[in-house]
Fold this sequence. Notes:
Helix content: 40-55%
Oligomer: single chain
Mean pLDDT: 94
Number of domains: 1
Amino acid sequence: MDLGLKDKVVLVTAGSQGIGLATAQGYHGEGARVAICARGADKLAAAAATMPGCLALQADVTDAAQIEAMTREVAAQLGPVDVLVVNAGGPPPGLFEDLDDAAWLNATNLTLMSAVRMTRAVLPAMRARRWGRIVIISSVGVKQPVPNLTLSNSIRMAVLGWAKTLAQQVAGDNVLINTVCPGFTRTARIEQILGPAGDGPNPAEAAMAAQIPLGRIAEAKEIAGLAVFLGSEVASYMTGTAIAVDGGSARGYA
């Protein structure tokens, strides 16, 4: 199937590892002109080396000025962004009583405001061209709260409400906004949540996998497949959705 992504300009934030990297590689494989950003120069360079022609820019998505500079550079070198993949590392785990105001504000800046600022930077050009895709990498926590992820469960719901509202406002300009909701996925984030595996199998991962109907956690490329589809021409009648990719772990109907 031709996804209609050849020569589209795609920007993937936090694209040097995990789901972000797998998503960038997926778009690159479809012939898109891919840009990625991340904070760490070494991982960014290594990621870009897997995608000939990829534009790699060092930027922190919690910094508004860096977002503006980075998106200007993408437009200058590749052209206006057609597909924005909003991705960032999740807030740290923690119980409510362990979280002070600084933790809440930092998490809001990382998870909500990065999405708002990135979208603000690329949306006017998308609307002017009457074509655009914004794909938000979120969490299955917006479908069913994940234990101990107080910040993530809370603030990702705010992102979901914002995305749904904005999707209705810009649909008439053929700008489509959809959310990918991964379950537990084999990335650096899983070690942050479960703790290091050590030399042998991680018993916490095994216990988690036992609660998932498919019996395992996801690989990053399995999340990326949906993220690429939602950014494509084929997904032309989908907007305002939030789709779980979780091996069946969420028990709700929606």
